[in-house]
Design a protein that fits this description.
It contains four helices and eight strands; from the N terminus they run H-E-H-E-H-E-E-E-E-E-E-H. The protein has helices at 3-23, 44-48, 58-61, 126-136, and strands at 39-41, 56-57, 67-71, 78-82, 85-89, 95-97, 103-104, 107-110.
Length: 151
């Protein structure tokens, strides 16, 4: 291992530890408010580089959102959170309930709160839906959670 890789590794660990310490300082925050923020655990680049170990539990993740996507320790399926229910979708296509002790290597969650509803024309294909949503959203560089329902 080269000196630069060791140095980068030490800096990454130091930043991670500092981030944890800041998060637990008394008075800094003790509860994630249910606003329009998106909480992300890790990065997709970490997953692409083989970092599949869970870093927090799903019990802890639920404090930051009730709607989102993610994965599990060892990339054991896809996580889907909907209406505060978390599911593990495995290769068999079945959505299994998630226990609070299971761990998260990557996730993005928010507290879903519909700011507006958009009617979707029946028979719209995926490309038409993408174009419709793109034209309906004013700010282009912001994550938008979308919930599609069949009423």
């Amino acid at each position: 291992m080269t000196k630069s890789r060791v140095y980068i590794g030490i800096v990454c660990v130091a930043c991670f530890v500092l981030g944890i310490m800041v998060g637990y300082l008394p008075g800094y925050y003790s509860y994630q408010s249910q606003d329009d923020s998106l909480t992300q655990v890790s990065t997709i680049d970490a997953i692409l580089n083989g970092l599949y170990d869970g870093v927090i539990t799903y019990g802890e993740l639920k404090e930051y959102g009730d709607f989102g996507i993610g994965t599990f320790e060892g990339l054991d399926g896809e996580m889907v959170a909907l209406n505060a229910d978390f599911y593990q979708v495995k290769a068999d296509g079945v959505a299994y309930p998630v226990t609070d002790t299971m761990t998260v290597p990557f996730a993005a969650v928010t507290f879903f709160d519909a700011d507006r509803e958009l009617p979707v024309r029946e028979g719209m294909n995926y490309t038409q839906l993408q174009d419709y949503l793109h034209d309906s959203i004013d700010e282009k560089n912001i994550f938008y959670p979308l919930l599609l329902t069949n009423l």
